[in-house]
Write a structure and sequence with these properties.
about 375 residues; mainly alpha; 15 helices; globular; DinF-like; transmembrane
Length: about 375
């Protein structure tokens, strides 16, 4: 007697040409960025205030050049994370990032101290960890999506270039503010630069914890706007903003206390520590503003309000860079932190403004306000 066993259903991969486009664009932009950073390192460092006779020049150029080799992996990872977010899958990018960062933490002391590569070791460790993250995401994505597009027309390069240009404009504006601030610190010498970089990393890293809220809110809002579920969009925006404030207040306490009692973990130099302690009120006190700014970015992204986000950021960048220059000239190291508070405050105002004025994708709020 012949038994016909039920065939095991084979999981069909999704056909999403935009995923292929995102990977191609991410790779090309990553290669372009790597070439720009490698061959333009000297010019970029000079712009940052690091001259060739500065003791910071050689290690800075070594670090920048090696880190640049990881640019394709960074942008490719960001592109694939966007694809997973489109699936409402925030778990896979989280696991990939945790594995990559854990590898970075383990390799840092090995390359820096055991192999005595110093700054170069830190750059090598970071670049390798980025390629590991990209590899994990790529292998996982291949299991779910057919990445071979049937034709070039389906890749929708025109649509990607239009939206990508807006996002690229915003990223350049955001990066310019922080980069210019770092350049002003570098012009004040190695000690202020060292203190500023340590404080800046703590300031940004802790604030980026709010990115998890922003990503979750972005995914839910995008679905709500697609379904024209305005009630869900409003509820999500309010809830995410509330959670952002709560997270920010928590970070205020954690970052303030942690940096005050744990500053010695970063350096033993008394002069650097003195400047770090001066920056603690700014770093800790701005955490609620920072987290709210990140969350509101996610709200606007979820509403596909890319044009407003990009153009408003350009205006904010011009105002912020101007304030950085003037305040650094007037108040030195502390003036830079005053300017960064203005920068994050303006970002928060820009995020609230769109929803508060019921314009753009939030026009539907006008009817609710009048009723």
């Amino acid at each position: 007697m012949q038994v016909n066993a039920a065939a095991t259903p084979r999981k069909v991969k999704r056909k999403i040409p935009s995923a292929t486009t995102a990977i191609i664009m991410g790779t090309l932009l990553g290669v372009a960025q790597a070439l720009l950073l490698i061959f333009g390192a000297k010019v970029l460092l000079r712009f940052m205030g690091v001259k060739t006779d500065s003791p910071m020049y050689i290690p800075a150029r070594q670090y920048l050049t090696i880190r640049a080799l990881g640019s394709p992996a960074v942008l490719l990872s960001l592109a694939m994370q966007g694809v997973f977010r489109g699936f409402k899958d925030t778990t896979t990018p989280l696991y990939a990032t945790v594995v990559g960062d854990a590898m970075n933490v383990v390799m840092d002391p090995i390359f820096i101290f055991i192999m005595r590569l110093g700054v170069r070791g830190a750059a090598i460790s970071h670049a390798l960890s980025q390629y590991l993250i990209a590899l994990i995401l790529f292998l996982r994505l291949m299991q779910q999506v057919n990445l071979l597009a049937p034709s070039v027309k389906e890749l929708q390069f025109g649509r990607f270039i239009k939206t990508g240009f807006l996002m690229l404009t915003r990223v350049i504006a955001v990066t310019s503010c922080v980069t210019f601030a770092a350049g002003l610190a570098a012009r004040q010498g190695p000690i202020p630069m060292a203190a500023f970089q340590i404080c800046l990393q703590v300031w940004l890293t802790s604030s980026l914890l709010a990115d998890g809220l922003a990503v979750s809110g972005q995914a839910i809002l995008a679905y709500a706007f697609t379904e024209k579920d305005h009630k869900k969009a409003i509820t999500t925006a309010i809830r995410v903003a509330q959670m952002g404030v709560v997270v920010g207040l928590g970070l205020l306490v954690i970052v303030g206390g942690g940096l005050y009692f744990g500053a010695g973990v970063f350096t033993k130099d008394k002069n650097v520590l003195h400047l770090m302690y001066l920056g603690i009120p700014f770093i800790a006190g701005t955490q609620p503003i920072n987290t709210l700014a990140f969350v509101l970015d996610g709200v606007n992204f979820g509403a596909s309000d890319f044009a407003y986000t990009a153009y408003s950021m350009i205006i904010m960048a011009i105002a912020s860079i101007t304030s950085e220059y003037l305040l650094a000239k007037a108040r030195g190291y502390i003036g830079i932190w005053y300017a960064l508070i203005i920068y994050m405050g303006l970002r928060t105002v820009a995020g609230v403004w769109r929803v508060g004025t019921a314009t753009g994708p939030w026009r539907f709020l006008r009817g609710r306000m009048l009723s």
